[in-house]
Amino acid sequence: MRKILRVGSRKVWLYIIAAVIGLVTGYVVLSSPDSPRLQSEEGILDLTQAQLSTNPQKLTGKWAFYWQELLSPEDMRVRSAREGNQDHWINIPSSWLGYPLEGQRLSGTGYATFGLVVHLSEQDRDEMLALRLSSIFNAYKLWVNGELLEEVGEVGQDKHSMTPQLETKLVYFQPESDTLELVMQVSNFQHHRGGITKDIELGGSDVLTTQTNLNLARDMFITASLLVIGLYNLLLFMLRRKDRAPLYFGLFTVLLGIRSLFNGELIFTQWLPQFPWELQFKIEYLILCVSGYIITMYFDCIFPNYVSRWFRLSTRILTGAFCILVVVTPAIIYTKFLLVIGVMVVLHMIYLMIGLVQAAVRRMEGALIFLLVSVVTLVTVVNDFLYFNGWSLVGNTSPLGLLIFTIAQLILLSSRSTKTASNEERITRELQDVNDKLIEMNMNLEQTVQERTHALSTVHDDLQTSYDRLLHSEQGRKKLLAYITHDLRMPLSSMLGYVEAIQDRVKPERNEQYLKYIRENTIRINRMIEELSFLSHLETGQVSYRMEPVQMIPFLHGFFEQYELVVRDAGLDFILDIGGTEDRRTILPVVEMDAKRIEQALFNLVSNAMKFTSSGGLVRIALVVEVMNHARYATISIQDSGMGIPPDQLEQIFERNYRYDRPGMGIEGSGLGLAICREIVQAHGGMVRAESDGKMGATFYVTFPCTVIEGKG
Fold it and tell me: The whole model's pTM is what?
């Protein structure tokens, strides 16, 4: 059986790797320019060698930048004549958020004027040209050669004097000379990223018009497809309410179709230009927030028992919190959380893909195709988040990826419905055959009843046996999931903190140390996942241990060094006190034990101490060797300066699923850590106990029988 699972798993991973390689190759092809990109230098772009009528160009590079000034073309000419050349330049496309100016980094709100001079070829000066402007946050005016050609929203010097608006515009003009002077006034007080964040294209009017119409047709096709598929599935649910999969899938698809109206070519804004800007953004962000939760519920309907209860609860809480944030706060606040919301959605998809890998390995129907299209969707969604943050060259790919995902899910649901109908027909035929046989056996009814009774008894016994096996398997699975939840939460959270610390450059000098810790914990987590299955069998004694003599002093030193960074970065002092044991080199305690399991038990106690100790507190590990009843015992104590444990609960804390939560602390746990610790220690012939006065701090003692060896004096 294990061999089959390994082979199946290998095939699944080969499919995933092939899909990822294909997507990466496609990304490289799409992101590589067809021709060399011409960029402006210090506000001047030379397009004399380009033929704009057939080959539009993006106006990228350095533009003149006048911060907190709204200048007309005449104002800029007067400024240039009086003060000379402009000395502030900004790369376009990009937000002015974080732009260094006079020793400071600009915020996302404010207003500015942008300027660019474009030199045209001789053949382009007589052509009808066009500028294609995507959405610019959040209002702008555009002059070409001193003529005001376009105004979207109302530009102002504060929030009250401006009107935000997002539109994709196509502006036509006749150059009449070989030089274009572009001046743009931009203001933003509603979004956290202001400025020209998307490409501005200059080219022939026919080419850009055709390209814009094709983009619009593509977006309308994707939107219409999503809405039709979604409404069809909602209708299916209304006709058969027992199956909730079409409900969640229909909601997911309809919401994505609505959201696509506010992206790309901004179809909804073209239909209703007076639609409130703030409401438009709230709808888009609310759909983004709830999409992860809806697809989780859909996955749970398709593959039951793969979404854990804690994940369903946590995603419900997170989704609700972000939705409330979007509803009650203005866009300037909740748009700052776009990356956080994106991470939440991506984590939803990654979690579901892990479950899909398991389902595909077990050859569940539809799991493999679900997994492959999920990989495609994940890549397109991640690319969009990177694009909207200015880190990707390929933009607005998620509608296409989601359309592929939707079509695949529609095929999956149709296959399930067809299979259900086929099964019903088969069952009907079988029932008819049984009825015919019963009629034929009417003359020998008593014997037939006896035969059927015996057969039913056998089937009942088989079903009872299968039920007992499934129940035992389910109990083991739940225990295993509980163990994984308890043991992996702390290292994963810590690793995420260090990754964020590296990204935010909190302490660059410690990056190498952080990376070393992340690598070590990654290896430890991989090893822990492979070995955690033994915990579900602890109570039945089906776990084997790799016992070997271990010197306690080097063991504790290694344990202390491994987790010192974790404890200290939690704001706690971490002390290893070997004391007289280390000084008396002639007597070295040795314990027969499985070092990995004991390390796991001790880490449970240390993480428990960290959980209940406030920042600035202390966690202390000590070792003593005692003689009791003519036998030696090594006792490891883990002491904290936390809030303490009531004396009447000192025995109960080691019971499975028991948790002590002091009011007001807001500390949550699975209640398995101390129970697991006790099981491991008792399996080594040791014992664990706790002491506390209930007011200040607690001390846990782990005692093992030991021997001693003579060391060097």
Answer: 0.51
Closest to 190 measured CA to CA, from 332, 84, 383, 305: 332
DSSP state of 249: H
Helix (H) or strand (E) holding 472: helix 445-503
- What is the per-residue pLDDT across 331-381, written as a single tens digit (0 to 9) for each? 888 888 877 887 887 787 777 777 777 777 777 766 666 667 667 666 676
Q: Mind giving me the DSSP string for 616-666?
A: T-EEEEEEEEEEETTEEEEEEEEEE-SS---GGGTTGGGSTT-----TTT-
DSSP 348-385: HHHHHHHHHHHHHHTT-TTHHHHHHHHHHHHHHHHHHH
Q: How many CB atoms lie within 10 A of CB 307?
A: 18
The pair of three-digit structure tokens given for residue 66, joined into one six-digit string:
């006048």
State in Å, rounded, how far the first CA of the chain is from the last one. Answer: 56
At 142-179, the pLDDT tens digits run: 999 989 999 998 999 998 899 888 888 889 998 888 89
Phi-psi region of 550 (alpha: psi -120 to 50; beta: other; left: phi over 0): beta
Structure confidence by residue, pLDDT tens digits, 570-591: 899 999 988 655 555 567 899 9
Output helix, strand, coil percentages for the chain, rounded to the nearest 5.
Answer: 55, 20, 25
Smallest CA-to-CA distance from 184 within 163, 205, 203, 200 is with 200
Token pair for 71: 């200048």
Tell how strand 110-120 and strand 39-40 pair up: unpaired
Secondary structure letter of residue 486 according to DSSP: H
Is residue 268 a contact partner of residue 167, using CB atoms and an 8 Å limit?
no
Q: What is the CA radius of gyration of the chain?
A: 34
